[in-house]
Structures are given as structure tokens and as C-alpha cells.
Amino acid sequence: MKDTARRGPALVILGALALGAASCSDHEGPAPVAVSAQAVTAAATLLAAADFAATSSTAGIVSAEIGNDSAVKLIAVGDMSYSSPYASNYPWAAWASRTFPVMGNHEFDSVSGTGGQQPYDLFNGNNAAGNMTFPAITGSNGVATYDFAYSFEITPGWLLAVVNTGVDCDQQSCSTQGTNLQSTISSWRTKNGGHGCVIVAMHTARWSTMFSSDSDNLPWAPSVAPIWNAAIAAKADIVLQAHVHVYEEFDKLNAAGTAYSSTGAKLFTVGSGGRGQVQPPQSNISSSLLVASDPSPINGVLKLGLYSGSYGYHFETAATSSAPASSKACNVP
Length: 333
Fold this sequence. Notes:
alpha/beta; six-stranded mixed sheet; 5 helices; 16 strands; 14% helix
């Protein structure tokens, strides 16, 4: 994984929002945290969604959010379009300059029916969606055309680390990416005096309560375990996953996905872009660890408020003008 946090204009300072604060706690769990009247300022506001249908209302939610605040950024956690041509089915085309893309299986196997070079071109601007570029990861930031794993310092104290799972890590080894991920996080924290909060984003789900579609054997892939394990070992704070067309919020999990861990990762499934399909329930994780769930078809985005040493979140099915208040302490603040 290439660490672009210190290269070129890779440091992005997002706009500030005045928000109500909640007390920070190092204990997760489904119980809500009481909000106090104290005002805090978010260093960054992020939206996260994936498995995006061009006709879904999620596009409108993101559009309104971005319209509310010119500094809001989007993490597109794979499967950004399902049909050709990409140009007419890429619902966030106007937001490319504010998007952190994650490669999904449809970036590889369903791009205008041709595959081949086009998924790579999605990352360097020579694509069917109007030759867009993603400034967060292209050009002078030093991310190579064929490198789909990258890291980016969203704001001081917060690192986004993106990996390329495809579906089964068939383009890039999950084991190698896991090793690189852990090294990237460790190196970044060392540069920051041993501190820093981390978001890891991958398309394929590690743990889920649902099938992804009738054509998929399972929505999750055990092969991505090295990436998940590396995220837990590195004390990443948030893991974003998709491929399953639902929204799920899990407790902070240990590596085995069997129990709460005080230094585990808060796991969100954000396949909520509106690509509705039948979702026969079949789980590889205990329902006791599932805090919230919205089954398919669901249209919405996870909204993250990033703070110094903590974060807040909520799932939106309609746009709001404010970000979540700080409520969860980072593992390594």
C-alpha cells in the first residue's frame, strides 16, 4: 500500500462545523451516549455509501449533503455503477473531485461490458464517465494507475486506508495487502508521535448477516481475513465494507468477530446505495453484535463526524445540515 499522506497535496483539511458534543468513552456497545450542550468543532465530515443504483434516492441525499457544505467528502466503497455506459449510470459524477473511490467487483467485471483497462482507467481519469479524475488519489499525489490500495490523511490525526478486495482479492493478494495495511498505519502513527485515528475501507464484507444477491454464494469472503486481522492488530477505529446491499452497524469487534473488544474496530456495512435485491438472511456473525440494520432495498449514507481523538456517526435516509457529534473515543487518540 502506498502511503500518500505525506506526498504532494495529500493533506486535505475539511471545513469546520459547530456541533453538539457527546462525552467520549472507550466502551462501545449498543447503548446510546448522552449528548451534552457543549459545542465542539468537527475537523472533517465524511459520507460513506456503496452499491449505488443510478435511480436511487441515495444520490439525492449525497447531492444535498454536498450542497449543504462544500467541504463534505464521499467515500464510495465500491460498485459505483452496475450498467453500461458508465457515463450515464455513474450517480456521483459531479462529485469526483470530492470522492475517495474504492474498487468493487463491478469496477472489474461490469464496466461497459469490456473490462480490461477500464477499471484501471477509473483511477487515472481516462474512463467512460466523462474522463473524471479523483484529485484525492491521482496526479501529484503519486498514486499509480494500477495501484488500487492507497492511504490519505483526511485531516490531521485521521488516516483513511483503502484496500482493493474486488470480491476475493483476485487482483491483489489479501495477505500482502494486510501486511502493507498494518505497516502503513504503524508508519503513519509513528510520524504523528504514536497517535492517530484510522478508517479502513474495503468493498467485500468480512462479517455480515445477509446474502449479497441470488448470484453470490455468500456476501462475505473469508479470504479477506488478513485485511480484517491487520486492521484489528493495528487498532483501526472504523472499518467500512459493502457488497452486501444493506446497512449494518456492529459493535467494536475482535479479530475473530465473536465478541466486543475495547481496542477493536467499529464495523459498518454501507451497501446502502439503493441496489435492491432479495436478501435471504444467512449470518457468519452473532446477532448480539449487530447494533442496527436496514435490509434491502435501503437508500442512505453513513455520515461520520471526525474530531480530535474521537468520532461521531449516524445513518441518514434524508440529508441533514449537521454532522454527528463526537461520541466515540479512538483506540489510539
